[in-house]
Amino acid sequence: MDQHINMPITAEITKNLHAGDYVYLTGTIYVARDAAHKRLMEVLEKGEELPFPIKDAAIYYMGPSPAREGRPIGSAGPTTASRMDKYAPRLLDLGQKAMIGKGKRTQEVIDAVVRNQAVYFAAVGGAGALLSKCIKKSALVCYEDLGAEAILKLEVEDFPTIVVIDQKGNNLYETAIKEYAEKA
Predict the structure, then answer these.
(1) CA–CA separation, 118 vs 169, rounded Å?
(2) pLDDT (tens digit, 9 = 90+) per residue, 62-117?
(3) Which helix (H) or strand (E) segment is 63 a member of?
(4) Euclidean distance between CA atoms 51 and 156, whole angstroms
């Protein structure tokens, strides 16, 4: 089923998302990869506030490239989500509602998705140039010294994703394998 969602994403929204749904996101999403996640954990360990509002936030695990003239960002494809698995449960427990990346997640992340009525979306790997066309604005939030791993705030319009893990723990990567095996 195709769905269009205006961000931020809430538990009220995630309860209507199911593994396999195509979802088009519009609004604010944040970009953070492993180096930025490590810094976010350091901030939390110090008892300080995160540099962006985590409640109902979506974090895109993205590897951006420099913007071409007249564009807010260059190629903007997803990076492997498993590198954030040691950080994701804590952020989900703090209110983050969505993650966007590619690849499988650990059971700890899946449990945190269920516990927090969150969702894990996949963006299509290898389609970074096409995905960048859905990004209307890009702004640095913090950690500029990390270069491509700095935290960014993106404004997106109809950014295409697929629900991989829904708030009930249904996992498209597992169900798709079973369906394929049954047809083979």
Answers:
(1) 9
(2) 987 888 888 888 888 899 999 999 999 999 999 999 999 999 999 999 999 999 99
(3) strand 62-64
(4) 20
Residue 156: phi, psi to the nearest 5?
-115, 155
How does strand 98-101 pair with strand 76-78? Answer: unpaired
| 41 close to 87: Cβ distance less than 8 angstroms | yes
Output helix, strand, coil percentages for the chain, rounded to the nearest 5: 30, 30, 35
Each residue's pLDDT tens digit, 26-62: 999 999 999 999 999 999 999 999 999 999 999 999 9
Amino acid letter at 34? D
Whole-angstrom distance, CA of residue 41 vs CA of residue 70: 35
